[in-house]
Amino acid sequence: MEKILDIIESIAHEKGLKIEDVKATLILAMTKMAKRIYGNEYEYGVSIDEKKKSLTLYQKVFVVAKDDENLNEDGEKYISVKEAKEIDPSIEIGDVLTYPLSLDDLGRTAAATLQKELEYHIQRLLETNIFEKYQGMVGQSVFGSVVRVDNDENTFIEIDEVRAVLPRKNRIKGEKFKVGDVVKSVIRKVFIDKAQGIRVELSRTSPRFLEALLRLEVPEIEDELVVINKSARIPGERAKVALTSLHPNVDAVGATVGTKGVRINAVSSELNGENIDCIEHSTIPEVLISRALSPAIVSSVKLEGKKAIVTLQSDQKSKAIGKNGINIRLASMLCDVEIELIEIGEKRSDNEEGLKGLKALFGE
């Protein structure tokens, strides 16, 4: 098969694949074709001559001892070492003899078989590359055009070479999209569905979407002068972000908020008006918890395992809890602790009775 490298380069260029990957795919297709034409019980190999740009298909014959039982079962797959030495005196048991097979004599059936095998394996290679590409993009922000919205309100978005899905559950409350809308989101996960192939699931409710938007909007985060330590969201309502500056001249919170709030407002606008609180991260849990409960002013924080006992003035309690309990919920999510609030002068036992009443009221 002359000028095979030209064919390989042409396929690689057309499909956007690596030449070495296409070579390996062609070799696999050739060996599969040979097994179908000559017999599945034999072993085959393929070599490519880089200088002549040609390909050779050959059958492998294994060298065994003269009394090996395989000789009686299949004389075309095995050869005795005595017979093999007549061909090559240096050969030993365990070596392999190769016999070139004429590609010109294979006929139309072989050519058709090779074409099918090559198309199949090139398609698998393309799918593998696409899967690995998007698997490596999990957590990254992407955008594309809406091409369909199904009866369950799942939104299908065209992103380069794939049609991704934004499930209704991953959409911010109150959002609705129509065909032609350009939608930003984050890749939540990539998986293989037996019926539908590669599936890319998007999200607009994940904290990682908030973080991806901040990276796009705040150069200091993109340049790694400011680090997002953690974020927590109640999608469409409110979010909290803990930030650390890695440069002495950069204020993490100030850089993220921007002049007159221009940066954080741009992110909030993309999130359907979600309010975003930026706080400075601390490696000291008690300090981080007190900052996470902002705008409430905390008097003290005491940790008991995964529980934080927070003491504060009575006029600060409602601020710490926030509307519908959002503030304290976000602080708990951000700091990964259960937070219990106690007013100064209030007994712990009295507060626990009050908590039991609240839990009973909300069914928790």
Q: What distinguishing features does this structure have?
A:
364 residues; alpha+beta; OB fold (Dihydrolipoamide Acetyltransferase, E2P); GMP Synthetase, Chain A, domain 3; 4 domains; 5-stranded antiparallel beta sheet; 4-stranded mixed beta sheet; elongated; disordered C terminus
Q: Would you give an account of this structure?
A:
With 364 residues, the protein is an alpha+beta fold. It has four domains: 131 residues, 2-Layer Sandwich (N Utilization Substance Protein A, Chain:P, domain 4), CATH 3.30.1480.10; 68 residues, OB fold (Dihydrolipoamide Acetyltransferase, E2P); 76 residues, 2-Layer Sandwich (GMP Synthetase, Chain A, domain 3); 72 residues, GMP Synthetase, Chain A, domain 3. Helices cover 39% and strands 29% of the residues. The longest helix has 29 residues. It is elongated. The N and C termini lie far apart (73 Å). The C terminus is likely disordered.
